[in-house]
Amino acid sequence: MSKTIRTEAVDHLFEAVLQLKNKEECYLFFQDVCTVNELLSLSQRFEVARMLTQNKTYLEIAEQTGASTATISRVNRSLNYGSDGYQMVFKRMEKNQ
């Protein structure tokens, strides 16, 4: 059985996220939608991806983020073989700075 994230429920969630206008609204929404640990886990993975694109070592990343090497490896696999979502967002963030 193949797992897909493309469901009507996920579409509804993404439509809701696209309604958010600023960082404060993101805080309000994600505090309601996620547990603290879920949100911290997502943000940790994002930081790991950011640091990997800056060519930081696994050791540096683990020390600075507290992420396990397994998490760093999974994020690295997404960066190398995923859907390029991280790269898309990083390019847009860089352009907007």
Q: Specify the CATH homologous superfamily of the largest domain.
A: TrpR-like
Distance between the termini: 42 Å
Query: What characteristic shape results from the CA principal axes?
Result: globular
Structural class designation: mainly alpha
What is the gyration radius calculated from CA atoms?
Answer: 15 Å
Q: What is the level-2 CATH architecture name of the largest domain?
A: Orthogonal Bundle
Mean pLDDT: 96
- The ordered string of helix (H) and strand (E) elements is HHHHHH
Total of DSSP H or I helical runs spanning 4+ residues: 6
Q: How much helix is in the residues? A: over 70%
CATH class of the largest domain: Mainly Alpha
**How many strands, which pairing sense, and closed or not: the largest β-sheet?**
none
Quick rundown:
The chain has 97 residues and is an all-alpha fold. The chain is 73% helix and 0% strand.
Report on the structure:
- This protein has helices at residues 8-17, 23-33, 36-53, 58-65, 69-81, 85-95.
- The chain is an all-alpha fold.
- It has 2 domains: 1-33, no CATH class; 35-96, Orthogonal Bundle (Trp Operon Repressor, Chain A).
- Helix 3 runs antiparallel to helix 4 (58-65) and helix 3 (36-53) packs across helix 5 (69-81).
- It is globular.
- The model has no long low-confidence stretch (mean pLDDT 96).
- InterPro entries: Trp_repress, Trp_repressor/repl_initiator, TrpR-like_sf, YecD_YerC.
- It comes from Marvinbryantia formatexigens DSM 14469.
- GO terms for molecular function: DNA-binding transcription factor activity; sequence-specific DNA binding.
